[in-house]
Amino acid sequence: MIPRSFQTRILSILLLLGSALSAQATAPNVLIFFIDDLGWTDIGVNGSSFHETPHIDALAAEGVNFKRSYAANPVCSPTRAALMTGKAPQRVGITQWISGDSPSLDLSEFTIGEAFQEAGYRTGYIGKWHLGKTDAVQPKYQGFAYTAAVNRAGQPASFFYPFGKGRRPSNVPDLKGYKPGDYLTDALTDKAIEFIDQSSTAVGAGSQDQPFFLCLSHYAVHTPIQAPEPLVKKYEAKQRVMLGEGAPQMIEEKYNTLARGQQGDPAYAAMMENLDWNIGRVIEHLEAKGLLENTIILFTSDNGGLAHRKRMVSPTSNAPLRSGKAWTYEGGIRIPTIISWQGHIQPATSEAKIITMDMYPTLLELAGLPLQPEQHLDGQSLLPLLHGELGEATEDRALMWTYPHVHGSGHQPSDAILSGDWKLIRFQSDEPTELYNLANDLGEQTNLAKQYPEKVKALEKALDRWLETTR
């Protein structure tokens, strides 16, 4: 007897492939918007009232908005490695953002770019990579035939032309023909549109020479917090109306650190609006070329918003989530994720727990390509979720993290596990273990570890088993 869930999965795949093949002569394109440091509540559809993100909100309304989506790590490079490989970051030896002599993503990994390239896709990577500093470990050697604006650091030297000078690792290359005042997020979008145009012909007819797989990895909204002046002035006025002239609300946190309690930074909000406008530019261009209905779109982030650090005021708040980037509290790891394919995926909001590693097998299966189970070891295809089925694999799933590093935000090494609504955080120091029930305490304010010692013991056992098998 074939299980009902398996029958549903096979039917979903057949229907998806059948509709795709009947509607288009080519395989579906894949477009990833990979945003840097974007917090869960930085977009309007997830609760922001200060930031204005109509294009991202519209994308969420047209696809599946995953409300319990998590980054593989609370900082960028490990999560980026997880997206490329489908593996927990520690499996590939990247648990910290890459600097100096940090390890790079090994060329032996069969990346998602290589999987699509091997399937005949024209592959492209634009923007932040941060998986290695030398020329030999850049995206063109990891399955991406076209690359542009990939620097050797975790942020740009400047968001304004000339996007840095000299030979600093943070300078952004390959951007010619721009002038003083031109903005980096606009320039990366220009490159993405150029790539799409090179991959297609017959504007308006939807004809393509070959399908494309593009990762548009914006440097926004990472520091430096810089935005076009007219937009900044707009949000300075909005700040005065909504928040008054006082200092931002700050929350005292662990290790003498501070977290921002509410959104209200004009420059950051201006960066968000510009980013949103550029997301809209790409989607509108796809529609104008007749390609939107044949393009799978993934929108996601590499970690939570920068809301928690030492001494300095951070540019965003992840409230009602606790903390932010570089911490294993919800604010540091819960991220926006939207998957859309117009005419093929029904709009929905999902409360299923998902994580970065899931994107590799999901995009393969959506595109009708064979899975790579020996590669994406820690990812699970979300195809059943995209068709309204929870699926056996995700129903009782536990997610886990390790960030075994001190970070400039004040974070001390920690591990975490989320099982059901129970979240355990164990700091690798003398700090007591913390246990929260997110169903009743989304903000992780009431530590229940002393009240539920058996739950702590069980979660720690599962966490230790995971750490042992993935290192």
From TrEMBL:
Cofactor(s) listed: Ca(2+)
Signal peptide: 1-25
Sulfatase N-terminal domain sequence ranges: 28-368
UniProt key word Metal-binding: yes
Keyword Protein biosynthesis carried by entry: no
Annotated keywords: Calcium, Hydrolase, Metal-binding, Signal
Record Pfam families: Sulfatase
Top-level lineage group: Bacteria
InterPro entries in alphabetical order: Alkaline_phosphatase_core_sf (IPR017850), Sulfatase (IPR050738), Sulfatase_CS (IPR024607), Sulfatase_N (IPR000917)
Family statement drawn from the similarity comment of this UniProt entry: Belongs to the sulfatase family.
Protein name: Sulfatase
Annotated organism of origin: Coraliomargarita algicola
